[in-house]
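Exercise 7.
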Amino acid sequence: MSSLLSVKNMSINFDTPRGSLEAVRGVDIEIPAGTSVGVVGESGSGKTVMCRAAMGLLQGSNVKRSGTVIFDGHELTAMSKEEVRNLFGSGMAMIFQDPMTALNPVRRIGSQLSEGLRVRLGMSKADALVRSKELLELVRIPNAAAILKSFPYQLSGGMRQRVMIAIAIACNPKLLFADEPTTALDVTVQAQILQLLRELREDLKMSMVLVTHDLGVVAGNTDYVAVMYAGEIVEYAPTTKLFADMRMPYTEALLDSIPKIDHKSGTRLAMIAGRLPDPTDRGAGCSFAPRCKYAQEKCHKEHPELKKDPDGHLYRCWFPIGVAK
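Solution. The predicted structure, written as tokens, is:
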């Protein structure tokens, strides 16, 4: 299966008053065409930074990037800012975490939705508004004509997220990044948004990168899962394979921390002790070793490289779960 997006040895550092902050560390990841890939990890694990860097959205004199990003045959890291920008909308698009801050609070929905259609596709203002109404209907927003005249504050969180999805898919992108698309939504609305994304991906033949901290979200919505910790990919496998036969202790800890419906009321939730390592001082060993219940002396002294099982299952661990020592 050909790769639509290929990231090779990506590292992202930010210059800060405390020193160089390593947000992403030597990441390799492939997004096969026509698939959905989940990127999972705690807040601060580098998920969003990796995706924004892959899209060429990280700018600034304090940002240092290395590695190669190839999208649909184009090497983005060798292109100018303008050339990369021309890929936005029809090539790549992103649904950002917080629709209230991502949408302009002083512009009507119709104006924001039609802008990309006019700029990217060259539509007239009238045609863009007609298409904007169709897009709102496509993302299951009732009374679309009235919503076009509304301001973001007049809509619920779920409605604003649907507007963000409509903006993202307006120019039929080949690859959609969905960055925590269900954050701050109640459970019922979360399920509706995830179902909508599944249907749109199938109908529009899009590939998708679904960024989340919740393994439960990726379980039924992705073909592959990449688990990130401390700026690195620590496990990558087909979704069904990962849940049936995970290798990384960190992945196991994430799964154990999901609330279980069969637990009695008042049951204490499982948690991962400790915290992510300081990104300005990672140390020599495995980044997860201080929090890992399986850690041994080698884990604290030597940094593990990605290993690959014969079936392609990738993991970064000296003592992986389910593998004979």
